[in-house]
Structure formats: C-alpha cells, structure tokens
Amino acid sequence: MATRSCCFRPLQVAELVTITSEPIDTAVLREGLFDPTAGGYSAFEGWVRNHNDGREVERLEYEAYEPVAVSEGEKIIAEANELFPFVRASFVHRVGLLEIGECAVWVGVVARHRDEAFRACRYIIDELKLRLPIWKKEHYVDGDSDWVNCERCSRSSGESMSKAAASHATDSTR
Amino acid sequence: MKTVTVRYFALFRENAGVGEETLTLDVANAADVFAKTRDRHGSHEPAGHCKVAINDEMADWQSPVNDGDTVLLFPPVAGG
Fold it and tell me: Which pLDDT value is given to residue A15?
C-alpha cells in the first residue's frame, strides 16, 4: 500500500478492486487512498450480522467469480467517477467463511470535497451489491444453511442486508 | 447444434453437482442455454432474476451464443 510520503500517485487499475479470502484491514486500506489533493474521505463497511429474516445466523460464506467481479467492479468505479468525480476509490470484498462482526466489504473514496466522496461511495456499494457475481450462504445457529437472495429472496427483492453498516466521513476542507 | 461449456455457480453448482460441463445444445442465445439446462441448474426463476456472462464478459439473455463459447450462469447475486 502507498505511504504518505508518496504524492500524486496515479490511479492504478490493478488496485481498484480486490477479492480476498484474507481479513480486511480497513486502516491499511484507508491509508492507501491518501492523496494530498483530497479533502474528504468516505467509507462503507459491511459487517456480518447475527440475524437475517428472523433467523439466528452463525456465520456467512461468500463465493465470488473473481474475473467478472473484478472487471465489473472496475466499471462501477469508472461510472462513479463520471457521476461524482473523485480523486481515488477502491473496494475490497471477502470470500470464504466469515464470522459475526467481520468486515465482508469495504468501499473507500477520497475526493476534493465531501459531497463527491459520500455520493460516489454510495453509488459503488449500491451497484456492487446489484451487479457483482458474488453469493452468500447463511449458516444458521440451528445447523441449517441457505443461499441468500436465491429463489425466496429474489421474489421480494429490495434490501436483504445481512450485516450492519458503518459509514463515516471526514471533511477537512471545503 | 453448438458445443457450449456451461459453468454453474453457488446454488446452481450445488444443484448441478458440477461446476461446469460441455454440452451440445440447440441454442441461439443465452436465454436458450438457461432454459435448456433448467434441469441442471434447477432454478424455477425467470432468467431475468439471474445474470449471465459469456466468455467472462457480462452479457444479456438475448446475447448470441456461438459454438465454443463458455456461458456462465449466475444465480441471483448477494454481494455486500
């Protein structure tokens, strides 16, 4: 990851989207977005929640098809940059077995001002949930398991968040 | 007839019992592949609830399928 001694590091496509089976270190990712021209940072973290649809969840299992998840993810970031020009953005999505409270997805955007940072971050998380080939299986406390959003959930559509959300932003300049 | 490699993911893979298979199918587009492999992926949903990619590029259900293509059938996604 970049350090603060680096100025005007060009946007590197290879770093825009990461699918990983390793725990997400949000502090390192935040540091990697640092840019001297940016006055605002907005991030979204999706966490594994202990319940969904009235059932107690023990853990989640994520599966992704990485080649398309990465290429489609890069398109989403490019679209966000067209709509809400930012300085730098990236996101990371976990795969494999995740325990309650773990970070399943992180989206970070730095922009000159907070408005673009907030809006681009929101666009990226909303679109990646809709478009990326990523699936999650809920493992319940009672021993049962089920793919989320398959069959039953797609009929009701709408939000099927199986995690709490955390979002924060700082805005050092106007 | 076209020789097509069909890849199944998540629920579809579990239903099919395999991650991919090469089939000889009478198909014109991606929707035809979805319909012809319904007894494999097991989805009773309309294709519109699912997604499809051809040769690792996101595609539409009306996208043409050519001999030798790899068609990736994605169940309803649930990232994030």
Answer: 65
Mean pLDDT over each residue of chain A, to the nearest integer: 84
Q: pLDDT band for position A170 (50/70/90)?
A: very low
Is residue A154's pLDDT more than 50? Answer: no
Most B-contacting residue of A154, A156, A162, A167 (CB-CB within 10 A), to test interface: A154
What interface predicted TM-score (ipTM) does this complex get? Answer: 0.95
B43–A151: do the CB atoms touch at under 8 Å? yes
Structure confidence at residue A149 as a pLDDT band (50, 70, 90): confident
Q: What secondary structure does DSSP assign to chain A, as a single string?
A: ---TT--SPPP-GGGTEEEESSPP-HHHHHHHT--TT--EEEEEEEE--SEETTEEEEEEEEEE-HHHHHHHHHHHHHHHHHHS--SEEEEEEE-EEEETT-EEEEEEEEESSHHHHHHHHHHHHHHHHHHS-EEEEEEETTS-EEETTSTHHHHH-S----S-EEEEEEE---
Residue among A24, A48, A49, A65 with most chain B CBs within 10 A, to mutate: A65
**How far apart, in whole angstroms, are the C-alpha atoms of residue B1 and residue B16?**
22
Spatial distance between the Cα atoms of A45 and A136, rounded to a whole number of angstroms: 16
